[in-house]
Design goal:
Layout (H helix, E strand, L loop, with lengths): L1 H20 L7 H8 L9 H21 L9 H19 L6 H10 L3 H4 L12 H11 L4 H5 L1
Helix pairs in contact: 1-2
């Protein structure tokens, strides 16, 4: 329902706008996308929503570069990947319970397990309860504290 509804509504609105104004415009994508986006209420998946958002931003960036509105930045995709990973590390340190277990395992693997061994007790004074949440995350992801140190 979600995927068919999203594409169907997007195409329907886009087609109706083209027929109504008797011309085609890239600006018709804005209302069509907004109306099609209402189908996210049927299947509210953060992963799918983030994928659509990042794809839309990537397409927008590529379009702006193609039209020479913004300069082409060498290795921009690598920068975005690094920035996204940095945000994940920030969340993993301050509020590890907000990460999906697959993201936690990814960060654990690329940090060589260091992400789980960092002391979070100094952060507890800010009210995040980070130490408690870290223990819960480690239990969920089947990583015991004993295996981290030995």
């Amino acid at each position: 329902m979600f995927l068919g509804g999203f594409t169907g509504l997007y195409r329907l609105i886009s087609c109706l706008l083209r027929r109504f104004f008797k011309k085609d415009s890239s600006y018709y994508a804005i209302p069509a996308g907004l109306i099609g986006g209402l189908t996210f209420m049927i299947y509210s998946s953060n992963t799918i929503a983030l994928y659509f958002m990042w794809k839309a931003l990537q397409l927008l960036w590529n379009d702006l570069v193609e039209k020479k509105i913004v300069p082409e930045i060498k290795w921009f995709v690598i920068f975005l990947y690094c920035f996204s990973t940095a945000v994940l590390f920030h969340v993993a340190i301050f509020e590890p319970h907000l990460l999906r277990s697959s993201y936690w395992k990814f960060l654990y693997a690329i940090s060589g397990g260091r992400i789980a061994t960092m002391s979070r007790e100094p952060l507890d004074i800010f009210g995040f309860e980070t130490s408690k949440h870290l223990t819960d995350v480690l239990k969920k992801t089947i990583l015991s504290l004993k295996s981290l140190y030995f």
